[in-house]
Write a structure and sequence with these properties.
8 helices; single chain; Rossmann fold; 7 strands; 255 residues; 7-stranded parallel beta sheet; alpha/beta
Length: 255
């Protein structure tokens, strides 16, 4: 697909879950638009390989091994980004997990805590430390990755959907608080996107692509690059009057 071109020369972007899927597509798009990009990922080796690929293409990239459920690790990752590149202009808090469907009467506390730790606490920690820097600068744009699961319920995935609803609540609330300080905060709500997570769900029998496509008005799964395009727009001056929104990128599913 053809991406709209943005001029992010001299800007710095930070992406969690940045080595694969929507995170990698967004990190690549930021880099190709001229930004220096920090790729934070639980899989440090994958982040290193992706950063090397971006370097080879002439881009500025930094790989950081980071577990977003560990606030100290997130604080360090943001600090390393600022130290390496001199500031922080844009962030895509994308890291998230999904566990297999479960009857809510049988879900373990351990499963609940694991999903919340990454999907909700991880976004909280990421925003917190990004905001420390952006508050100091007096500008910045943050995009948090919710989901169509932040807009509707999901049979067998109550905790996942609860966290994604929570991400929207976090995003709207911080957007209100930080609008006077020059920082915009929004969320994207991807539908079923062709990512490694969706591939694993398909392989495990949790998702039937034909059934999924049949409920999408545009008649196909989304591409990671299409989510990246939405994130870049929300971070750009083209969206300078947009804050506190939860933007569906779902082929019309939630319509």
């Amino acid at each position: 697909m053809t991406m709209v071109s943005y001029a992010f020369n001299g800007k710095v972007a930070f992406v969690t879950g940045g080595s694969a899927g929507m995170g990698a597509a967004t990190a690549r798009a930021f880099a190709e638009a001229g930004a220096a990009v920090a790729i934070a990922d639980l899989d440090g080796g994958a982040a290193e390989r992706f950063a090397a690929e971006l370097h080879a293409a002439g881009h500025r990239a930094l790989a950081i091994q980071c577990d977003v459920s560990d606030e100290a690790a997130v604080q360090t990752a943001v600090a390393r980004t600022v130290d390496a590149f001199g500031g922080l202009d844009m962030a895509f808090n994308n890291a998230g997990i999904m566990l297999p469907p479960v009857d809510s009467a049988d879900e373990t506390a351990e499963a609940f805590d694991r999903i919340v730790a990454v999907n909700l606490r991880g976004v909280w920690a990421s925003m917190k430390h990004e905001l420390v820097q952006m508050r100091k600068q007096g500008h910045g744009a943050i995009v948090n990755c919710s989901s169509l699961g932040g807009l509707i319920g999901g049979n067998g995935r109550a905790t996942y959907h609860a966290t994604k609803h929570g991400v929207i609540g976090q995003s709207k609330s911080v957007a209100l608080q930080y609008a006077p300080l020059g920082v915009r905060v929004n969320a994207v709500c991807p539908g079923t996107i062709e990512t490694p997570m969706v591939a694993r769900m398909t392989a495990g029998g949790e998702l039937d692509p034909e059934t999924a496509v049949s409920s999408i008005p545009l008649g196909r799964l989304g591409l990671p690059e299409e989510v990246a395009a939405a994130v870049l727009w929300l971070c750009s001056d083209a969206a300078s009057y947009v804050t506190g929104v939860a933007l569906p990128v779902d082929g019309g599913y939630t319509a």
